[in-house]
Amino acid sequence: MGSSIEEGLRPELSRLDQDADLLEEEEAARLPVTSFEGLFLEGNKQPNPGQGPFFYIGGTNGASIISSYCESKGWQRTQDSRCEDYKLKWCEIKCRDNYCSFREGQQLLFQLPNNKLLTTKIGLLSALREHARTLSKARLLPSTQAKVLKMEEFFPETYRLDIRDERQAFFTLFDETQIWICKPTASNQGKGIFLIRSHEEVAALQAKTQSIEDDPIYRKMPFRAPQARVVQRYVQNPLLLDGKKFDVRSYLLIACAVPYMVFFGHGYARLTLSLYDPHSSDLSGHLTNQFMQKKSPLYMLLKESTVWSMEHLNRYINDKFRKTKGLPRDWVFTTFTKRMQQIMAHCFLAVKSKLECKLGYFDLIGCDFLIDENFKVLSWEDEVWLLEMNSNPALHTNCEVLKEVIPGVVMETLDLALETCQKSLHSQKMMPLLSQRHFVLLYNGETTDLWPRMGGSRHLTRLPPSALSSVRAADRTGARKPVPSRDAPTSGFRKSRQPDSSGGSGAESEPSLCSGSPVNSRDTAGESSLGPPEEEREEEHRSASHRGS
Ligand SMILES: Nc1ncnc2c1ncn2[C@@H]1O[C@H](COP(=O)(O)OP(=O)(O)OP(=O)(O)O)[C@@H](O)[C@H]1O
Ligand SMILES: [Mg+2]
Ligand SMILES: [Mg+2]
User: Where is the composition biased (Polar residues) (predicted)?
Assistant: First the structure.
């Protein structure tokens, strides 16, 4: 693996890992033992019927886990979606009102309002492209010659169909030796996806796209037009498990947005029911989504075989491929995990300055990876592909493995969101984190970003001693023993960070968050003059509401 200079400032990652580990261990050894309980928001364990503290859950995704967690803290569930006096709000669908009435520093709110920068196909593609441009400029500086992750090494070649020149480029380059996959920008569960293999299919797509563009109704009301789409090079020879295609769902957790505290979490592998045949026209063998598999009459009988734990995947790859492919032992928990972490960190850095951040916002994003059959040991290239990132990832527990994995992910998410929020609020040092168990720290904004603080320490800023604080050499689970916390001098509230709108194609801002409609609504008002640059605008209006995928 080469070294990394993300954003032109990044020192070598593995050295950073060691430094960060050493520092944290030394620090932990010096710290007095204190209880973390006192840090929970008002830490109220005595239910006080009808008087809160309240929590609200919108939708059913993960609801029973979130609910038990909050009840264990003595909080009470409210069914009133307009309740403003809540401690925690976890909604599947983002709603502008939630962000308008949000009380920074007093509440926790699930989902960053503009997480679509990562979680729509066009958002992610645009962010990665812009980041690549920034990095290539930085590479011209003599001090930053080291190797950085390149987008084309982990993100399959992708074209936007809503931009004329781009789709023309795709139609020109297409030939029948390759397969492409066409996806709507903001759907999930495989909805609206199809494969493109022939010139006839390309011609049909071309005609359809043109007719939408020419339609006078859509010209007048572009927000009524079908969702924008991308075409992406189809990874034709994925690694197979007993002949079946699979992808890996992992998690990017933004536990705290002020300062950024960003983590990686393991998830699970999702397999198809049927054997993989690249030439088959049956999409259920190509799309590994559970939603696709559930359509099969065999699903109820065989559903347990469609979700594997990461340990199962690791054992299988050890047994079947270690010798034949010359892989290191536990490739899944070493090489593969580290690669996923690098990719996620890269994507986060691509949007870091554009995310709308307030203390109390947190987000859990589901990231889907595909492994190429040709995976090589000595090279990072062309082995692990990021397919997409998802807001509101599925938290269902309808299979045994999901019952094992999901509650832990949700509870640690909430624990970390609470702990980091409390520490930020009281200007306490973030590390060590008592509630960190399986999630692995990817980015610590406290030590990396410049921190203007309010109140007495307004002028106190921290210079970045390092960048990615701990994309650690992946230990098996990322598990760390809870270590005691240390209080730092309290200097009040950390300042919320507005997205950087300093230009560039990815820079965008929500027009106004106070219209009372879902943030992702297709009927979003006020899109014309205040909105993002033109090529971003359509996406703004397409993002359909979204159930866990
Ligand atoms: N470039 C690709 N090459 C090979 N397979 C792909 C590619 N892109 C997507 N797939 C397959 O199609 C499935 C659905 O694609 P994707 O995840 O991008 O869509 P989605 O509708 O957002 O699904 P979900 O949000 O439910 O995961 C993936 O899980 C994967 O199995
Ligand atoms: Mg998706
Ligand atoms: Mg997916």
Answer: 512-523
